[in-house]
Queue: 3 jobs
Job 1
Amino acid sequence: MNASAASSSPSTSVDPKEAEHFGKLAAEWWDPKGSSAMLHRLNPPRLGYIRDAIDHHWDADEHDRQPLKGKRAADIGCGAGLLAEPLARLGADVTGIDAAEENVAVAKAHAAQSGLAIDYRAGGIEMADGPYDLVTCMEVIEHVADPAAFAQGLADALTPDGLLIMSTPNRTGLSKVAMITVAEGAGLIPKGTHDWDKFLTPEELTSLLEDAGLSVTDISGLSFSPSRGFEISERTGLNYLVTAARTGS
């Protein structure tokens, strides 16, 4: 899935092997039946979760079509823009950052075709010129070399009233079987995408974010139902989303 920065240090933030792996997928990123098909299936529930978090954090009108108007947003590990584009449509001034130059090239081309002005940059978290009101980071921290430094970089990119929303696989037996043995084994996810040992539990990610000066306000599961597909639930065994804000904000 998406991968980007590895730490807040410019010399170590991008893992070349990760960038190469995801760069090879760039051409098919927007194909809902291609190698990134799983991301297309994940995107609707993630967007719903993000919209709910936005409305709650800023007390926005749920019927407002542009609740992020006048706000800056950054999507770290943006891939070819599957999340950055919806954020722009919600009114945000969006910066998308990804380690793979190939992904950034595809993202720029697709945004131009869609008539969206998004500032795409190749690199790691150090390419963020915050502060941002909203920082999203989906399926990225499990790919980085230094999760603690990366979490600190995300926190540092936020405004005092900023909101951080992340998603990542949980390190459980379920995720190992479902995401690596089954999904990668069957080609539903490109082989080599995940290293199960680098998955973080909700408790571990919460600790990293708290050490970075953030307070976790919500943890929700991103689970799979054979009848409904991916959905937000209380079940965190496969994958989960986290919302965090500055402590005391």
Job 2
Amino acid sequence: MANLWTHCKSLIPTKSLMGIYLVLDILHTQKSARAKVIHVIERILAGQSLSVLLDELLAVVGDDDRGFAHELTVGTLRQWWALSRIGESLIERQPTDRGVSVALNVGLYQLLYMSTPDYAAINATLDALKELNKGYGVGLVNAILRKVANNPAKFAKKVQKNHSLPNHLAKILKSDWQTHYEILSQNLRQPAPIFLRVNTKFGTPDDYATRLNHANIACDVVPVGVRDERCIVLKDNIKIKDLPDFCEGYVSVQDRHAQIAGHLLASLRLPKHPNILDACTAPGGKLAQILELSHSGAFDIKHMTALDSDDRRLDRVHKNLARLHLGDKADVICADATTYQADIPFDVIVLDAPCTATGVIRRHPDIALLRTENDIIETVKLQAQILANLWQSLAVGGYLLYITCSLIKAENTAQISNFLTNTPNARAVDIELTLPNHIKQSVGYQCLPLDKYDGDGFYYALLQKI
């Protein structure tokens, strides 16, 4: 183990390593759950990932505190900007210590969103500040929390009225989706539902829904939005590994709108044994869906190629394929999609393009804190480079399915429109998505989370090489 840690340290930049040391140092102490939550959020604001730190946090808090710590962390992040505007309206001079600001929002979240008694929310949050050696922030945080606690209805109304997006992103979304902006901005601050994709090798969504009902797990079978295809939405909170036969590969977690990809490809007329590339594949959900559909006769695939530039994320792809017993069906390679060249042209390229992931903010609320205006500019450039490069590896007559989980038109409709303008041998192919929140664009469709039971924000466009 010591040798492994030494090797890992050599692969991590010194600055990042210092951050990891700090997190481990705080989390693996006897400090309270609130102190650990404050520290984790502080590290997220410094640029670290919620998905990594949340797992670490939940592993070290006590069983009785695990649910509380999860709700407090994710909920505070999800409502971050709305909570911050409450604090800003009550403070003349903002604290220079990021941890004090975090403690304030953690306290506000308990008062306005949780059933935590006022005295516990205030006193325990102040104690957490002291545990973190930030006692100099106690007076400020105490004053604000007590002011809110004295008039909770007023501040609850104010916090709900505000959107919870950074101003630059709110401005873009309001411009891109003026008609839908109000409901969209409110839904982005709500928890997202959990959807399941049933492995067609083992049965249909109705078959698995019956099994869930027998296990007293509430669910609904809902349309995906492509022809009559359907998936499952869970109505109960449950650990995913506790789903019937999850470990045996019967079912996978995949957003309703992400499941559109495989079903769109299944509607195309493809060669008998299509040569398919899944580019930017990690974590491999769409790759697995396509391979599963091949079992039901939707495709006649003998093999697929999947590539991603991140070795660590490819590890998750291998694990997912192994659980689904699909590990021998795909050639998974680590390669840069901006330079990758195929020896044999592909009949289909599925490009799940890098994006700002603004469509999945409900699941990953740290995105709203970390994305900058410059990130959008750089992402658009990267997408254009990947499109131009992969197009060279597409066979004449072949299809490229362009997908993002972004809500920003510059990454979606504008990106594809520019590509079509600059690529004479590319044409847009009409597709049809059928749900009310599937908004037809000049090219392709934008799926929006306009209801708390909707899928995430996704964009789809289908191109053909002529």
Job 3
Amino acid sequence: MDPTLPRGTDNTVERMLRALGGWLFPPREGGGGGAHGVLPPLLIGLTFVSGLVDAVSFIGLDQVFVANMTGNVVLLGFALAGDREFSAAASLLALAAFTAGAAAAGRIRRDHPAGRLFGPLVAAQAVLVAGALAVSAAGAGRLPAVGLLAVSMGMQNAVVHRLAVPDLTTTVVTRTLTGLAADRRGPAAVRRLVSVAALFCGALAGAVLTLHHGPGAALALTAGLLGWIAATGRAAARPAGGPVTGRGGG
């Protein structure tokens, strides 16, 4: 077993993740198969999570986004214009909490390689999502859950921003779709298409679970996925082919 992987990581899972990474980043782009190691498929997993939590927050909580901050700015404008379907307080809370989470993760990451922080920060996300599940189940109101989820997504975006793996931002779809439509076909187009599909599938799964089983079911799935990604994410610290690429990742 690769010594960079956590003890107990299944060889079959490892091979599958590295194969997916190599498919998303073929040798001619990175100078070696799977230049980013297991990181690309894990980021696809986080993209799926983004769709899940936005479905929960919009459908099951307070018609607000916790991952898509562009949408929140627009919803805030609607609310301030007098549309009573949307809550200005919820949008402002999500924006503030997201920014706080990104700032907190940003302070930590400045002095550490981003790859080594990937697993711990995703683990912290899992704890925050579990906290949102707990406060929601306890009937503590919707806004505390919105705040916890938005903090977790801010942290996710901060570490993904630092890693700067091409085309895998985990939340931003507008630029991804623009590149998919405007640029030449190639490996980048495959990554963009997979990223959009992962966000869509996450939103679909989150909506189905929330509508038929309540927000708790979708949040439980989200926490479980994040826990698995965090446990596997130790491998992202030293992927095959060298250190994780990304700004300041030395």
